[in-house]
Automatic annotation (TrEMBL):
<dbReference type="InterPro" id="IPR029044">
    <property type="entry name" value="Nucleotide-diphossugar_trans"/>
</dbReference>
<protein>
    <recommendedName>
        <fullName>Glycosyltransferase 2-like domain-containing protein</fullName>
    </recommendedName>
</protein>
<dbReference type="Pfam" id="PF13632">
    <property type="entry name" value="Glyco_trans_2_3"/>
</dbReference>
<dbReference type="InterPro" id="IPR001173">
    <property type="entry name" value="Glyco_trans_2-like"/>
</dbReference>
<keyword id="KW-1133">Transmembrane helix</keyword>
<dbReference type="InterPro" id="IPR050834">
    <property type="entry name" value="Glycosyltransf_2"/>
</dbReference>
<feature type="transmembrane region" description="Helical">
    <location>
        <begin position="241"/>
        <end position="263"/>
    </location>
</feature>
<feature type="transmembrane region" description="Helical">
    <location>
        <begin position="269"/>
        <end position="291"/>
    </location>
</feature>
<feature type="domain" description="Glycosyltransferase 2-like">
    <location>
        <begin position="78"/>
        <end position="281"/>
    </location>
</feature>
<keyword id="KW-0812">Transmembrane</keyword>
<feature type="transmembrane region" description="Helical">
    <location>
        <begin position="303"/>
        <end position="327"/>
    </location>
</feature>
<keyword id="KW-0472">Membrane</keyword>
């Protein structure tokens, strides 16, 4: 295969229906045509797709190792990362490449990963956790909703393009971390190399959400543990107020019964009750305000209520597991 300008790398366990029915067809409809698709699987596949090569990484490896292998096999200047359950807008590559042309100091380009309109109500509720101000917290709504163009220093690989030379300069992904290998890569690109990552709302990908509650909370739990761990070892991009707030929320809730147990008749209990009650009332107002915004957009009262409950439970899980991750000496690979 001749050299191309962009290599699109997708790590998977095996070729699935998302790839067959959505991702690859969407890539083949790109307005920019000079690209290759590299799918890295656990085991070799005999399936064939246009512009695509399938590489086996057996024995089984994680997403970071698969992406690193895909980069080694690529024939391009620009590497584009997607997940196997995502698909881009038709002008995704064209818009991203125009940003790279602006400045050689731009090492990466990224954009929003939106909830697909065909997702069911439980997936949409998960999507609103990610895309609303109250739900997303430290992650920022711009990751999962269109927002203004900006420079960022942390972004997931569901929609991230990087210059191959810069990727290789920092040694690629750190496979010890999953999830979180993308956070470490962005940290290296922006802090070690001093390069820029530009977020642009025109670089659009659609990403299927995990259903609430089980699959969604399983994903959130992994993110919370790694973000908490990163807050201690990589504070430059992870020790931020938005990531800490769910833990403060949880600590506030659990402090009342503890104070009541040890200081039942004290002013400490009185003031704790006042502050906690005030905080809960504010939180409930923000939940209702968020749900109202969802209803105005979707005209679905059931979805609005599900979003409220999903945000609350997400904050509880995230807040507890963030603390666990912060105090975990070393994460298992």
């Amino acid at each position: 295969m001749k050299d191309v300008l962009v290599s699109i790398i997708i790590p998977v366990i095996k070729v699935n229906d998302f790839l067959r029915d959505e991702t690859i067809p969407a890539l083949l409809k790109q307005t920019f045509k000079d690209f290759e698709i590299i799918i890295v699987t656990d085991k070799i596949s005999n399936e064939q797709f246009s512009k695509t090569k399938i590489i086996a990484s057996w024995p089984r490896t994680g997403p970071a190792d698969k992406r690193d292998l895909g980069v080694k096999k690529s024939k391009s200047e620009i590497i584009a990362f997607l997940d196997d359950d995502s698909y881009p807008e038709h002008d995704w590559l064209e818009n991203a490449l125009s940003i790279f042309k602006e400045n050689q100091n731009i090492a990466g380009v990224c954009g929003p990963s939106l909830t697909p309109p065909q997702n069911n109500i439980r997936q949409k509720a998960s999507g609103y956790v990610w895309s609303t101000w109250l739900g997303s917290g430290g992650a920022g709504t711009y990751r999962c909703a269109k927002s203004s163009r900006r420079e960022v220093d942390d972004f997931p690989t569901v929609n991230l393009l990087v210059r191959k030379k810069d990727f290789n300069s920092v040694g690629g992904f750190d496979s010890h971390y999953w999830p979180g290998e993308d956070t470490k890569l962005c940290l290296d690109l922006t802090k070690k190399l001093g390069k820029k990552i530009i977020y642009d709302p025109g670089v659009v990908v659609y990403h299927h959400r995990r259903e609430v509650f089980g699959p969604h909370l399983k994903q959130i739990s992994r993110y919370a543990i790694h973000r908490g761990h990163f807050a201690r070892i990589f504070p430059e991009t992870s020790l931020r107020l938005g990531y800490l707030l769910p833990s403060f929320f949880v600590l506030g809730l659990f402090s009342i019964p503890i104070i009541f147990m040890f200081f039942p008749n004290s002013l400490l209990l009185f003031y704790s009750l006042v502050y906690t009650t005030s905080g809960l009332l504010l939180y409930l107002f923000l939940l209702f305000y968020t749900a109202t915004g969802v209803y105005q957009k979707e005209k679905n009262i059931r979805l609005s209520g599900l979003v409220m409950l999903s945000i609350f439970i997400t904050h509880l899980f995230y807040g507890i597991l963030f603390i666990k991750g912060f105090f975990t000496p070393k994460l298992k690979k």
